[in-house]
Input
Amino acid sequence: MVPYYVSKIHDVVVHVALTEECQEHLTILKDPLFYIVTSKSSDLFMHLDSIFKTMQRFKPHIVYIYSRPNIYEFVYHIKHYNPRQKIIIDVRSPLLNNSEIAKKKIMASYSQAQLYADHIFACDYAILETYLPKPRKPVSELPIGIDLHHFPTMKNMHTKRLRNFVFVGNLHRRRKISQLIQNFIDLASVFPNTIKLDIYGSGNDESSLNDLIRSHDAKNIVEIKGFIEHDILFTILKKYDAGIAFVPNEIYSVAPSLKSLEYAAAGIFIMASDTIGHRKYNELHGFQFHLFPNEKNEFLSVFKNILNNGIENDIIDINYKAVQKFDWAYIVDTVVHPVLDRLCGHFTNSFDQITAIER
Output
C-alpha cells in the first residue's frame, strides 16, 4: 500500500517479479499506479536486467527496495547503474533462518547494502536489528498499516460475553497454529457447547491442522474455513465477539500481528499472545489488547477468566481509536512523504519525479 499512497503525489512504477502461479492471483490497483510484472527468475542478472529496462524507461529518482536475502547485489548494481539515484531499503519482517551460517551471510549483505542506501524504513526497530544491529544510515519506523476505509462502521457491542472467536492468518508450520487449536479444544471442554473458533487462512500446515481437529471430533469447536478475500473478510469480522492474535513466541515475538489491527478496526475484542510486539502496541500506542501466554495452563487460565467475567465495552472503543493512526494514508503522509521530499530535494521539480518501487 505504500506505493499506492505515494502515487497520490509522485509518479510511481511498481516492478514486480512473480511466478506464473502468483501472477494469476495478483491484484493490480487502479490508477495512478503503473505495474511492470515480470516472471520471477532465480538468475540475479536476468532479474536485474528486467529492472534496468524499467529504469531506462521511467528514469526514477528514487528506487524503493523491499527486503530480500541478496539485498547487497541489488543495491550495488542499481546504485552503479545511476549513482545519482536515491535508494530506500524497507524491512518488513524479522530475519528467519535456522542456519546460523545463512543468517550471518544475510546480515553481512545488509551491512554492505546500507552503505549505498540513503534511507532505511523498518516496521519496527527491533525487527531491523535482526538484520542490522548497528545501522549507519538514517532509519525511520514505518509500521504495518491497514486501509481503514475498507472496514464497515464499527458495530455497537451489546454483550459483554465472548462466545464466537476468530483467527485470521497464515497456516504455515512455523506459525504453530496447532498449539492454538489444541489449547482452544481443551478450553471448550471446560465450557461445553459454549464457544467456537473459526480460522481463516491457508498454508502448508492446513491439512495436518484439519487432521488434529478431526482426531478430537472438534469440528463444532474449531473450524478451518480456508482462504478468504480481504474485501469479504472486512465485512464478516464484525460478526465475531473477539479476534485472536496468536503469535508463536520463538520466532515472531518482536513482530506485532497485522490482524490485531484489523480486529481493532472491525470493532471486536482482541485477545493477543503476550509477545514483545503486542506489549509494545499496548504500552506505546494506546491499545488495550488482552494478553495471554501461549503455554497451555496459562492460556486456559486467562481465557477462563475472560469467559466467566466478560469484558468492558470501552476497551473496544479504546482500540478502535488507537488504530486510527495505523491507517496507511496517515502513515504514508506522516512518515514516508517527508523522507521522499527530502530525497527529492536533490533534484529539480521534486514533485514531478518518478519513483520506482521494486518488489
Remarks:
- The CA atoms of residues 234 and 252 lie 24 Å apart.
- Confidence is low (pLDDT under 50) at residues 348-352.
